[in-house]
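Reply to dn_fold:

You asked what the input looked like. This is it:
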Amino acid sequence: MRVLVALDDDYRAYRGVISAAIRVLRPHAKAEPVGVDGLAQHMERFQPHLVVCTRPNTVDPEGIPAWVELSMHHSRPTRVCVGGHHHELTAPLGLEALLKIVDDTEKFIQTHGDCKGC
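and this is what came back:
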């Protein structure tokens, strides 16, 4: 399970903490923090199953099993897509909710492989 955490440089501390938390709480997962600049190259190199990003998936729509468009503002929802199923979370995304998305993504790729969808 590979998770790419791509947040704007204004939130570089968050991307480091999020990646570290995923690695500690889901030891089988590889989580890598990166900036959003050069996102396509990071995705090509790392081949993530899940991307947590402050931007929507304009790099490879429908080309990745799961994508979280993480809102850093309380007034905008966080958008989640796992296996083509979309939903929004209106509250700030907490660690427990993020770990559930990691787990849901892992279940999806175990049953569908690297099937694309988001």
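The longest strand covers residues 2-6.
Hope that clears it up.
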